[in-house]
């Protein structure tokens, strides 16, 4: 069952509100998210944002990771 754009947006709003309660439980009827820390919530928000962007037909922006290493002299 695919969710609609408004359902994804309301799920995103719930996730943002869940940042205030670190042990929140949320469900969209299919999946249940139990957050343990901000990392869990941030990953869920990123996933929902990607789904919203896909439904809106927006181009996905690739994420780049930059690693800084220290070299000894």
Q: Describe it for me?
A:
This protein is mostly helical. 45% of the residues lie in helices and 8% in strands. It has 2 helices and 2 strands, in the order αββα. Strands 1-2 form a two-stranded antiparallel sheet. Strand 1 and strand 2 form a beta hairpin. Helix 1 packs antiparallel against helix 2. The chain is flat. It starts with a helix and ends in a 17-residue tail after the last helix.
Descriptors for this entry?
73 residues
Indicate the topology.
Blueprint: H1 5-18, E1 25-27, E2 32-34, H2 38-56
Antiparallel strand pairs: 1-2
Distinct helical segment count = 2
Helix/strand order, N-terminal first: HEEH
Report strand %. 5-15%
Average pLDDT level: 76
The assigned structural class equals mainly alpha
Envelope shape: flat
Rg (C-alpha, Å): 16 Å
Low-confidence stretches: none
Q: Give the total of beta strands.
A: 2
N-to-C terminal Cα separation, in Å?
57 Å
- Estimate the helix proportion, in percent: 40-55%
Strand order of the largest sheet: 1-2
Major sheet: 2 strands, antiparallel
Give a concise summary.
With 73 residues, the chain is mostly helical. It has helices at residues 5-18, 38-56; strands at residues 25-27, 32-34. A two-stranded antiparallel sheet has the order 1-2.
């Amino acid at each position: 069952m695919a969710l609609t754009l408004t359902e994804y947006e309301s799920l995103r709003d719930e996730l943002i509100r869940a940042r205030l309660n670190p042990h929140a439980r949320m469900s969209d009827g299919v999946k249940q998210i139990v957050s343990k820390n901000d990392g869990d919530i941030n990953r869920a928000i990123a996933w929902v944002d990607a789904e919203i962007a896909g439904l809106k037909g927006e181009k996905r922006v690739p994420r780049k990771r930059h690693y800084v290493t220290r070299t000894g002299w």
